[in-house]
Amino acid sequence: MNQLVNTWFPVGALDDFEEGEPVAVVAGNKPIAVFRLGEEIFALHDLCTHGHARLSEGFVEDGCVECPLHQGLVDIRTGAPQCAPIVEAVRTYPVRINEGNVEIHVE
Amino acid sequence: MSNKAYVIAGAGHAARRAAETLRLKAPASRILMIGEEAELPYDRPVLSKDALLGIEGEQRAFIHDADWYEQRRIEMRLGVRVTAIDREQRCVHLSDATRVDYHRLLIATGSCVRRFSGPVDKGVKPHYVRTIADARALREALVPDARVAVLGGGFIGLEVAASAVSRGCAVTVIEPASRLLQRSMPAEVGAFMLGLHRRHGVDMQLDTTPLAISKTPAGAMVKTDSGDVPADVVVIGIGVVPNVELAASAGLLVDNGIVVDQHCRTADPLIFAAGEVTSHFNALLGRHVRVESWQVAENQPAVAAANMLGGEERYAETPWLWSDQYDCNLQTLGVFAAHQLVVTRGDRQGDSFCMLALGTDKILEAAVTVNCGREMAVCRRLMAAGKVLDHARLADLDTPLKALLK
After folding, report:
1. Of A67, A73, B221, B299, which residue is the least packed, with the fewest Cβ within 10 Å?
2. E-strand spans in B37-128?
3. What is the ipTM of this complex?
4. B204 and B58 assigned to the same domain
5. Is this prediction's pTM over 0.90?
């Protein structure tokens, strides 16, 4: 039971994350790209479902991240593909902000 | 069923994109795709890369399965070729002796490989990389320790070389020019790719023209103007030519591709063309271009489809393409030309750099990124916005490229 409770991983303070500047973190052994949109934080699996690209190296615009290798677009909030060549959704991870600290839930 | 069919000659990437758009914009229309290969439409980028590594990579070429087309009532006639267009009768004749009437016709016949022009001995079967069947055959041949001779140091040849290296093959690349990617890239990029391949153990033979491929007891021999290259597998990647015969025999204008305007129209108001078979007017470049890339196969057919339905959409994009070799990603945008001032950012000896070419008006006209795709996203926006750029700021690595967007 304790293991279930402990699956929220702290990845830094809210202030560490800047809009338009995604950050690569590792939580629960998973590579995760962390995005700030306004006062909210979102977490995507840090691998494009199309190429072998890190979404944390992508360009952020209008709530989407652009894959750095092949220019596919992914919705940062939902992981849904928005533009080819990406056709498969990217996994999202739940995020909570706990007393100013960002925590990501990884099973 | 209505006979007012939207007929697509071809069943590749461009044909798929046209069919998708037609269905989206005209839910009740009849859509019929006719393709010479027995395969469902597939995208080609993986054919020279992941598809050579395993079956899983090959499967990624197919964007939709048969159910997808069936559910959307996109009729497929596969393994059948359009042999002639009868413009007067508004129908196409097929290789199985049937005919299909069209309301609008889209020619999306793509390209085929340029064949090696020298003599090839009987009993040697050089590989080409254009179709999924080609990729399967080559994948079977790329066994560990096989000696692979690649004719052509362009993108396809280099991607095949990288794939063959990762399969454990001993690779030689034979290229007549004195540098790689001479046609499209600044010399520095060719030099970087040369170093990359040499570091991976590829025997790079520049300034070397292949003359003939002969049979030997052990395999094959590529005879060149500077010696013989023994090989178990010979791969030829010396470019493609557009499949224009169908259009030409129908009396449509052909000049390095099927000539269309920016609306993808031929001179016949019922016939359109899209994809890399076209020589299309690009308003951004101010001239007709034929572009061999995923980008044109992806985006131009959507414009053609909209206009087949009576739309007035225009296709104009700055040419962009990518190549993946080993862990290296290369992207290029626009067209490099002699009049440009080229600024290099990053260390050419290192892992990543980009080169930006400014026109006389100091606006970005072309860019290439090597292992820094994020900068390509910025370059595209700098170009689209027509930003006047300061050479010194551009060259200053302490100024992030992104800051120049503001």
Report:
1. B299
2. 74-78, 82-86, 91-94, 99-101, 104-107, 111-113, 127-128
3. 0.82
4. no
5. yes
